[in-house]
Amino acid sequence: MLHQRTLCSLETRFGDQLSLAPAVLEQHGRGESYHRTLPPDAVVFARSTAEVADVLTLCHATRTPVVAFGAGTSLEGNVSAVEGGVCIDLSQMNGILRIDVEDMDCTVEAGVTRSRLNGELRHSGLFFPLDPGADASIGGMAATRASGTNAVRYGTMRDSVLALTVVLADGTIINTGSRARKSAAGYDLTRLFVGSEGTLGVLTEVTLRLQSVPEAVAAAVCGFPDVASAIRTVVALLQSGVPVARVELLDRAQIRAVNRYSKTTYPVADTLFFEFHGGPKSIAEQVTYAEALALECGGEGFISADEPESRNRLWKARHDAYYATIALRPGARGWSTDVCVPISNLGACIAGAQSLIASTTTPATVVGHVGDGNFHVIFAVDPENVAELAEIARISDSLALLAQSFGGTCTGEHGVGSGKIAHMRAEHGAALNVMAAIKAALDPRGILNPGKVLPPAPLALLAGAHDK
């Protein structure tokens, strides 16, 4: 329950920017996945870094939990208020503070969405390439170290973030990094906060590296007799040095779901979607080479397109994948796993995933950013069926362990949230204690997004030494 002193202080400081309305609290206690809604006790709609600092100063004094909220598109329970407290909604912090065409960078407030930023960049010759699927906020993408379909060429948020403005647990405002493309000055605090999921500080401003809009873009689609043939094509393509921008896999169950949901007519086969960026001549060469590789590996029906409308039509299946799977079952919610393995082990890991899927009657599909070894199994679960949720949890846990056994990770881009905490010890070993020490140093009272990323055991051991 929210401390009365904190509530009175928030009401005095924020007035109508503070909401206690049940519907608002409910909205801010969930993302887009199966996780149970855990609403905060209050929501503050912050409009500036100074206001975020004021909220944290007040909450730190009374040990009140604080959860930062962007667009609400997270998938691992990242924004649920496990211990109640105050949610800071950053959506009104949506200013694009600076765009520098010459230096190819920009600074935005945390609530700016990916689509809005690219809309502002439309006439600059630059774009922000990361596409996680949802129209996520830039702050949320940085907090979860998001990536998406373009990561194979342009990297993840780890590669795109140059500097941050961060508010610490006690309200202290710090700036990390600079606009310089490299630095050897001190600890890399920017990388520390990118991916910390609001457990070390609240990100309020983000300075991003931008990319030049490619002169030409082409897309292609090709079906395969099985996943193994598709993965062989991806490995060969990457090993040949073709600078593919995107390469996505949709298994035949996913293609069937998309055809039903989006009224498309793709052949029901394990299918790769490609995108190539560059000059017209190089694009033509890349498409020709990719087609030859695909056909050599057993692909059929290779189709390419370079006009925007045709490209968008080809990519519609990938963009609709998550919602197409959920639509297989009325009233379902999505449960999306998120593992990543070295490319050489990708085929075996997906085969293992498909064996796990075969053990359940819950509708499930496979979709992946296979150019960087990342894939998802999406389950359409009944959120009220406790037995089914337990079964899918066991399958999801088995898949995470399988990925780790192949030298991979339990989450490639969704983040740990509350959903992947159980796998952190197996993945990081003694390094988890170092993470806990960092958490205890920056957030000694444990108010920042509690119940996320780190299991409670190492935190409890350190709490007494650091909490003053």
What does it look like?
The protein is of the alpha+beta class and 468 residues long. The chain folds into five domains: 4-89, Uridine Diphospho-n-acetylenolpyruvylglucosamine Reductase, domain 2, CATH 3.30.43.10; 96-212, Uridine Diphospho-n-acetylenolpyruvylglucosamine Reductase, domain 3 (2-Layer Sandwich); 216-317, Alpha-Beta Plaits (2-Layer Sandwich); 329-421, Alpha-Beta Plaits (2-Layer Sandwich); 425-460. Helix content is 38%, strand content 21%. The protein contains 18 helices and 19 strands. The protein has helices spanning 4-14, 22-27, 49-61, 114-120, 138-144, 151-154, 157-160, 189-193, 227-239, 252-262, 280-296, 308-319, 321-326, 346-357, 386-405, 424-428, 431-442, 456-466, and strands at residues 18-19, 42-45, 66-69, 86-89, 96-100, 105-109, 126-127, 161-167, 173-177, 202-209, 211-212, 216-224, 244-250, 270-278, 300-305, 333-336, 339-340, 364-369, 374-381. The strands form four sheets. Strands 12, 13, 14, 15, 16, 17, 18 and 19 form an eight-stranded antiparallel beta sheet that branches. The chain has a five-stranded antiparallel beta sheet with strand order 5-6-10-8-9. A four-stranded mixed beta sheet has the order 1-2-4-3. The longest helix has 20 residues, at 386-405. The model has no long low-confidence stretch (mean pLDDT 94).
